[in-house]
């Protein structure tokens, strides 16, 4: 229990630091995806600091776990994590979206160490991850493949084609995480096209499906541990999906849950309010 509490404290610290780093990147670019970045921050932090087996000094290591950021517009949440882990220098963050920079507003696997797929067009992520999971298994590798999608992304039919194939192939090494923040660029998912209950829909495709609190490091770590246990017990078992219930813009209290802040700019006093909100909210949650 002590080890778990120590891990959660570390992850909480990184979640705060990475949100503040995301504000830094948006300041450089002049605009950014606050809503989808902050909703998935705990997911990304828990994955990279406690679950994914990667080597920053050897990013193309064949035995690594693969990660696919289906919602590529949330890359400004991922870049600071990769820099913090040593995939590339922290100074590169100050070039985000600038002419000639390797760090574009969607990740490019040809330019950025630690990126396994050049995502951007929504809906491709699960198909790519499914192919990776099948490929590493055929190659005799023990690698796990994680795909992070948005709930709005589920509107793409290709997602469900991949879901059917993955379960048919028994890809127990495939973990999909749906960032269910309930908003997209055009409004709420309930208004536009809802796939709730998402977990039951994946279960109907033959997946192991469960819901977790996407802002709880404790719940996320427990779900990852259970994923590994199922995979060890049944290597040819079903793939897993975690429907992570989250809040768009989590941490900045005056934009939370608002589709209008899918993308935007917080400058001047608004940026100062955002910084204060992040520090205040997460310090209160630790008490």
Describe the protein in words:
- With 287 residues, the protein is an alpha/beta fold.
- The protein has a single domain, classed as Thiamin diphosphate (ThDP)-binding fold, Pyr/PP domains (Rossmann fold).
- It has ten helices and seven strands.
- The chain has a five-stranded parallel sheet with strand order 1-2-3-7-6, sandwiched between helices.
- Strand 4 and strand 5 form a beta hairpin.
- Helix 1 runs antiparallel to helix 10 (269-286).
- The longest helix has 28 residues, at 2-29.
- It starts with a helix and ends with a helix.
Sequence of strands across the biggest β-sheet? 1-2-3-7-6
Poorly predicted parts: none
Q: How would you name the oligomeric state of the polypeptide chains in this document?
A: single chain
| Domain count | 1
- Main sheet specs: 5 strands, parallel
By DSSP, the count of extended strands is 7
Strand content: 5-15%
Q: Give the rounded overall mean pLDDT.
A: 95
User: Any idea what the radius of gyration is?
Assistant: 18 Å
Q: Please identify the structural class as seen in this structure.
A: alpha/beta
The tally of helices reads 10
Protein name: Transketolase
Organism: Paractinoplanes lichenicola
InterPro entries: THDP-binding (IPR029061), Transketolase_N (IPR005474)
Pfam families: Transketolase_N
């Amino acid at each position: 229990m002590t080890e778990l509490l120590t891990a959660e404290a570390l992850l909480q610290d990184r979640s705060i630091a990475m949100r503040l780093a995301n504000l830094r990147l948006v300041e450089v670019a002049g605009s950014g995806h606050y809503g989808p970045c902050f909703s998935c921050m705990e997911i990304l932090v828990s994955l990279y600091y406690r679950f994914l087996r990667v080597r920053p000094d050897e990013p193309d290591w064949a035995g690594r776990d693969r990660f696919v950021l289906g919602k590529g517009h949330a890359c400004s949440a991922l870049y600071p994590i990769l820099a913090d882990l040593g995939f590339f220098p922290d100074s590169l963050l100050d070039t985000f979206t600038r002419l000639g920079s390797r760090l574009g507003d969607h990740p490019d696997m040809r330019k950025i160490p630690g990126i396994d797929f050049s995502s951007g067009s929504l809906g491709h992520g699960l198909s790519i991850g499914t192919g990776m999971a099948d490929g590493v298994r055929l190659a005799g590798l023990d690698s796990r493949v994680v795909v992070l999608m948005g709930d709005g992304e589920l509107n793409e039919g290709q997602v469900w084609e991949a879901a059917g194939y993955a379960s048919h192939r028994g890809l127990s090494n495939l973990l999909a995480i749906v960032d269910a923040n309930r908003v997209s660029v055009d409004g709420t998912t309930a208004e536009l096209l809802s796939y709730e209950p998402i977990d039951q829909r994946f279960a109907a495709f033959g997946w192991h499906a469960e819901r977790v609190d996407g802002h709880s490091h404790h719940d996320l770590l427990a779900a990852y541990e259970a994923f590994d246990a199922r995979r060890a017990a049944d290597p040819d078992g079903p793939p897993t999906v975690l429907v992570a219930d989250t809040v768009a813009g989590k941490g900045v209290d005056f934009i939370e849950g608002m589709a209008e802040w899918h993308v935007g700019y917080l400058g001047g006093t608004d940026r100062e309010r955002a910084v204060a909100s992040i520090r205040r909210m997460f310090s209160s949650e630790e008490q």
